[in-house]
Amino acid sequence: MRSEQFSYQRHQFFVEGVSLADVAKAVGTPFYAYSAADLQSRFRSYEAAFADIPHLICYSLKANSNLAVGRVLSRMGAGADIVSGGELRRALLSGFLPQNLVFSGVGKTKDELILAIRKKVRLINVESEEELRMLNDVASSLNRPAPFSLRVNPDVKAGGHPHISTGTPDNKFGVYHKNIFPLYLWAKKQRHLLPVGIQSHIGSQITRVSPFKKALAVLLDLAGRLERAGVPLELIDLGGGLGVSYNDEEPQTPVDLARILVPALKNTGLTLFLEPGRSLIAQAGILVTKVLYRKGAGPKHFVIVDAAMNDLARPALYDAFHEIVPVHRSSGTKVRVDVVGPICESGDFLAKDRLMALPRQNDLLAVLTAGAYGFSMSSQYNSRPRAAEVMVSGGRYDIVRRRETMDDLIRGESIPRGLV
Ligand code: LLP
Predict the structure, then answer these.
(1) What digits encode the pLDDT tens for the residues 304-335?
(2) Which pTM value belongs to this model?
(3) Is residue 239 in contact with ligand 1, taking CB distance under 6 Å?
(4) Contact assessment for residue 68 and residue 45, using Cβ atoms and an 8 Å cutoff
(5) What is the CA(57)–ligand 1 centre distance, in A?
(6) 40, 45, 165, 329: which could form a disulfide with 159 (CB 3.0–4.6 Å)?
């Protein structure tokens, strides 16, 4: 489903009243464009849906960690979910308050734990017994408190693709729910460890809310038993994962999620944390690319564009569907095309067997629903400078990341002395 901020005006595709053709003229292609208004309205729907209970919506920075995206959300009072020292830096620069930061991830290093404690993040989501011991060592040596949750593996199946399903014991995430209890009891005895919450994240691109209900039941049961054992918790963090519509999916919404979570949490005294990424930013972003060449081999047409799998990896990586529309709408007859990039791999495609009016050379195409896991997963593969990013807001746009240059490609590299 298309965001209402992206629409045609007299056959030209616009974002919040800004012509994408004009942006392309000024910044070149490919580029990502984000609508601040779309992002804001999606954050507001989360806020409204959970208004009846104490909560914190922690935007999952990995979906799109551009400083401007973070700034839009931090200004609205969002928290952030981070998974590395790098994301911690980005989160602080974006204006997120340390007390609104949740540090997740299955393999935080000692240095990252030190940084998290020094910066006083609100919550560290611990994923193994060994990490918990490391956190204890680090907190003791700094003589600082370490507020933490254990990430529970609740054994709930959910998620749109095997690579993004995380809630069952056959993947690497969390601590199996039956092994949680002794860890909290041990932590309770350590001077610097503060068991404040319990967490799970069951997967991504989840289109039905029922798996969240199952995960919540597991967490509430554990929280109740912990309280009776003398370890009262303050918060439950249910992770992210709500899906969006890329094609014809009809995902349930934050309102549907609230309908099952709010009644269950209302009288518990627990604060709810959520870590949405995709459902906030995916539909607020598009990737604009230019047609370089066309060619036809029999019934098949190839449209070769200047964006590739290094810019948007999702089709190659997950066989993901992204709708593609022309920036200038034409009325040609529709044919079946593969939209492919210039990279030397057959896996380098943005769309396969797509029915569309055959675009012409130099036409612009917009790849929709690309705001999440688009730029943030991009690379320089084939020594391609990464794309520019622009943010549109209130009828104007700003370049929020300049296109990389040839110098950026080799930054930090050098030729060994013996080979000069
Ligand atoms: N919290 C944790 C601990 C996570 O691991 C993730 C995503 C999120 C929150 C945010 O989930 P979301 O609301 O965005 O579904 N690259 C893949 C998605 C990977 C998701 C990884 N974890 C894709 O492009 O589909």
Answers:
(1) 999 999 999 999 999 999 999 999 998 888 99
(2) 0.97
(3) yes
(4) no
(5) 14
(6) 165
